[in-house]
Amino acid sequence: MVLTETEPAAAPPAHEGILRRQSLRESAARTYARSLPIVPVRARGLTIEGADGRRYLDCLSGAGTLALGHNHPVVLEAIRTVLDSGAPLHVLDLATPVKDAFTTELFATLPGELAEKGRIQFCGPAGTDAVEAAFKLVRTATGRDGLMAFSGAYHGMTAQALAASGGAQHTSVVRLPYPYDYRCPFQTGGERGAELAARWTQSLLDDPQSGVSRPAGMILEPVQGEGGVIPAPDGWLRRMREITAARRIPLIVDEVQTGVGRTGAFWAVDHSGIVPDVIVLSKAIGGSLPLAVIVYREELDAWQPGAHAGTFRGNQLAMAAGAATLAYVRTNGLDRRAAELGARMLDRLTSLAAAHDCIGDVRGRGLMLGIELVDRTADADATGARPADPQLAAAVQHACLDRGLIVELGGRQSAVVRLLPPLTITDEQADAILDRLADALTAAVRTTPGPTGSSPTTMRGTSP
Ligand code: PMP
């Protein structure tokens, strides 16, 4: 069934009751369910229909999972084909034609030596599992223990992945500065700020008195997603590649969120041309179903049989849906489409920023976009940026939902409104998303007092 904006919605079922039972029965740790109190019952492409009969444009896309949007025909067809074939759905890590086809399709897209001579490990089944596997692999291969990770990073919720994420404390992971143009601690931003961040990393590794020993690996995201949509400059990524290669430190690139065309290249590393030693993949590679893998240089394959096992590493439906998604993105050039459309959307967001002084920064790459909301009444801090305004961001998210638009919040203090639309959206849909966002922003600005409570946040050029 194709959902359109004009089609009459189905009769609303017990929407309220479902939400009430959820809040009574599910853990206090539930996340999206709090800020997005909807009950999805049908979905197609960009559109979700709720049990209350309302339709929403979904720019959360399963936290960046749905490269082709909800229930794309090629994904449904791939799943049906497996189901109708009588193939086993659970196979541990045994070889199957479905897995063979998925692996072939994935390798066809990977950069350089990874495509030619990479090894794949099916981890199970979430992004965080693949991050754990990557850490374990480099520790085995190097015989070293420490890890290097970046401020603001997000790698998952299992113990080691969390330890390497920005919010972690009391960990043995060495934390390095990620080039964050808008809040550059070196107060320069741009290429220069990124170069200074790279030099800091280099000096920690080379100074025998830095207190940092050579780690088992370095992990980074080419664009920090949960950290607030922060694209790393290509030059900085090349520097990280040089620094790690020269010191024989395996470079792990986490493309869980940036992969499969999202940033305007098939893999985000393709922008800079670097080839990591380990690439961590999940989300879009499963075509909306759970699937996670690492692909790594064969020299790192020091694992003994069974060194990294798991029951759920053979999800046949996910592999079929994933292979169909990878092939569709590749053959339809959706990575290029994401680059073009993303640039246009970024332009419009930049115009929006010119009209609202509560927008501190607008940034992104491809269809991974963010606007950072700040307290316009406050003074700039040491980095030259004004403090984040999480209260306004929450109000914008709420106002978006009221207008039938689902957006995600991210960033250090959840003050970055994030857009992760499917790569398949039309120009008209992109306009509809931005129209609703602009309208929501104006409404939220009018009704939300600044964090200091001193005066309401207002539109640039208008009186409070
Ligand atoms: N790495 C990155 C870059 C992510 O964005 C995420 C999830 N947002 C993860 C790892 C963890 O993936 P999962 O939630 O599937 O464990």
Structure summarized in a few sentences:
The chain has 464 residues and is α/β, with parallel strands linked by helices.
What features would you describe in this structure?
It contains 15 helices and 17 strands. It is an alpha/beta fold. It has two domains: 14-64 and 334-447, Aspartate Aminotransferase, domain 1 (Alpha-Beta Complex); 74-331, Aspartate Aminotransferase, domain 2 (3-Layer(aba) Sandwich). The strands form four sheets. Strands 4-12-11-10-7-5-6 form a seven-stranded mixed β-sheet, sandwiched between helices. The longest helix has 22 residues, at 334-355. It is globular, with a radius of gyration of 22 Å. Residues 1-8 and 453-464 have low confidence and may be disordered.
**Number of DSSP helical runs:** 15
Could you report the average pLDDT, rounded to the nearest whole number?
Answer: 93
Total domains: 2
The CATH C-level class name of the largest domain = Alpha Beta
| Class by SSE composition | alpha/beta
CATH topology name of the largest domain, in short, is Aspartate Aminotransferase, domain 2
Going across the major beta sheet, what is the strand order?
Answer: 4-12-11-10-7-5-6
Task: Give the termini distance in whole angstroms.
Answer: 46 Å
- As a percent range, the share of helical residues equals 25-40%
Low-confidence runs: 1-8, 453-464
In this entry the ligands are: 4'-deoxy-4'-aminopyridoxal-5'-phosphate
The Cα radius of gyration reads 22 Å
